[in-house]
Structure formats: C-alpha cells, structure tokens
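re: ur question from earlier - yeah i can do the single chain one, its not a big deal. heres the input i used so u can compare w yours
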Amino acid sequence: MLTEGKTVEFKREYVDDIKKTAAAFANSDGGTVYIGIDDDGTVVGVADADATVLRVINALRDSVRPDVTMFVDCGIDETDGKKVVVLSVQRGTARPYYLREKGIRPEGVYVRQGSSTVPASDAAILAMIKETGGDSFESARSVNQQLTFEYCTAFFEKAGLELETRQMKTLHLIGEDGTYTNLALLLSEQCTHTLKLAVFEGSKKTVFKDRSEFSGSLLKQLEDAFAYIDRYNRTRAEFHGLERLESRDYPSVAVREALLNAVVHRDYSFSGSTLISIFDDRIEFVSIGGLVKGISLDDVLLGVSALRNQYLANIFYRLKLIEAYGTGILKINESYSDSALKPSVETTSNAFKIVLPNVNYVKENKAEAMEAKHALSSGARDRNRAEAVANLCRKQGFVIRKDVEAALQVSQSTAVLLLRKMVDDGVLVKSGTAKGLRYRLAD
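and the output i got, formated as tokens:
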C-alpha cells in the first residue's frame, strides 16, 4: 500500500496547490501525485477524470516556468473500481522551476522536504541556478524575472536596432528555456550592480569633494558615469603666438575606453560596485574580477582579449560602443602618446585597475612648484647666513654690520635686513647707536 513521502503525494481532488507540488518534484528527485486518494490512503476516485487530466496539464503549462510539461506524464488509473488521475513528474534539467506569478524567489520556488512541499531557501535557489546554468554568469537564468527594458530599448532604437523577443533570444537575453538570463538583468532597469564615483581633494582619499552612485541598466550607468567624469575633465588653454591650443585633463578617448573596460570585463558574479575615483592628478577605474585564466597582463597590454562576458561584449559591439575586441588598452595608450605621463594598469587575482594621469596637472603646478622650490632654497640660504652670523658672534663676542658684509660677501642692505630679522626673531640683541651699533647673541 502506497503512503505519502518525499516522492508521493495524495490529493482527494484537484486543488490549485498541485502546481506547487509538481514544481517541487521537478526541483527535487521527481515524484507522483495521485488525485482521487485521501491523505490516509483511501481511494475516493475522481468524478470526471478526463477533465481533471486536462485541467492539470493546462495549469502546469500556464503557471510553471520554465516549461515543465516535457518532464510530466498525466494519465488515468483504475483502483478499487475508481478512477484516479496519476501525475508523474521527473527531476527537471532547467531547475529551478517556479510559479510564474511569483518569480524565482522563495515564495515561487518549491522543493520536497520529507512528505511536505516547502519554499526553497535563497541558497538552494542559487545552487540550482549554478548547477543547471553552467559556469557562465551571463547565460544563467536571472533570479528576478520581472524585468523591464525601457532604457535598453530606447538605446537600441537610437542605434537603429530592434529589441523584440526574437532579437532578445539571439542576443542571449532570453535563454533556451524562455526565461530571462543574467545578461538581461544587467541591461534591465532592475540591474543590481552599480557604478560608484567619488571626487577627492588632492591626491589622497582623505577629503571627499563629491560622490555619486549610478544604478539601472548598464547602458544608463555608462552614459551617466561618462557625463559625471566629463564635468571634472577640465579644458586648459595655452597660447602659442596668436594660436590658442586647448587640451583636456584626460583624453576623452582614454576615459571612454577605461569606462567601457570596467563595465564590459568585470566579474558580475560578485555583488560589489565598480569604483571610479577622481583625484587632482589622476582617475582610477577599479573593477571586480582579475585577468581571465590563461591571460597575463603583458598579453592584455599587447591587445590580446579573452572575454569574460562574451554576450555582453557582443551587444556593446552591435551598439558600436566598442569597435573591436582587445583594442581598448591600446587606444588608451595611444591617446597619451604625446604626453610624458603614461597610463598604468594593475591587477590582482580579483581586481583590475586602470589609472589615467592628468596631463595638465604637472603644467598647472610647474610654476607653483618652482615658486615653492625658490622659497625653500631662499629659506635654507637665510638659515645658513644666520648660523654664520651667530658663529661669528660666539667667536668675537659681538658683530657689527661691516663684519657681516665681509663674512657673508653680501651688500650693506642685505646685511642690515639679516641683522634686523635676527633681532626680531630674538636671536640677537643690539646695543649702542649709529657707528657704535653692535649685535650680541641673546641670552
């Protein structure tokens, strides 16, 4: 005699919860639902078995995503002279199966736990996605299936491209099971990844001047971030004769390529934000995800490209945001070909950083640096002269102006100014007047 358990469920009659049980069997180890058998195992039968079979199949087809019907067999058996509808469900290959109106979340995804059908945990859902979606993050099913694409569609239209269901399947926004992929999530308004930008005073992360965080479709984040950086990318003008020459702090090509690199090549299986930091002398672009396995930094600098997100890169290529794979770093370096300062690239096992130097920073600070250098050297010279006068005082007991002129080989006015400053600083004291004026070390 059959009893309820992990792979067996009894239903006295058809109820709407049967679709939950079917999805739970498909997400677990399979199982069978018997409609027309009471919880205690008593066979009560089904009045209209054919209509019940049709109702079950339609409910599963309409309510469970991805399509589970290929793993389902629904028929009629006769037990004790009564008709029983038997719904057999195999373990599916496109787990997690979920209720369409609830989405891929615990209230929509069910599993079997003993003889009960229960909501799956977040960890269990992610494990199923990883198990059935392969190693590629962008091709795996999105946990969120309630996605919208207003900005993405408008962006495609500006590029003269359509974004209907057929194109979304071709571009891998919709997977073979008819559900949205993580790639679709990245381009939707519901994208969970963000771009964080911060402007700092000076060359250290000590004082914030401004900060912002951009969310939504990656396409929107790109445009918002580029516009934000552009506000801080000043234009400096120089005159050579009558000709006015203008140069920006950062070549626009370099900013564009560094931003695209940070967005296209980052590892979206991690939840952290892409970080862009603007200093007085540089901009740093830091994205999560080190180099793709098998590729070295030298390879990248030579233009070798190994795509972590090949479908995302393909979309950016179709939108003419990138011209060819592997040219970004080369373009960045070429844009600095006439500059003494060069971009740099740093990598770790889990991060990639591009640093763009401010080409105008050294020019603008050269005069200031020279003044500071002059002031520093003048200060050192005056200190040395004062020390020489103090030593002469120790040796002679006192000095007069002419002693200072002779010892230091300076003019009368310079000697007077030096002695006056040493008196003001409390180093010397003076006594006498006119030709009898003498200077001694203060006690």
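The CA atoms of residues 37 and 43 lie 4 Å apart. not sure if urs matches, ping me
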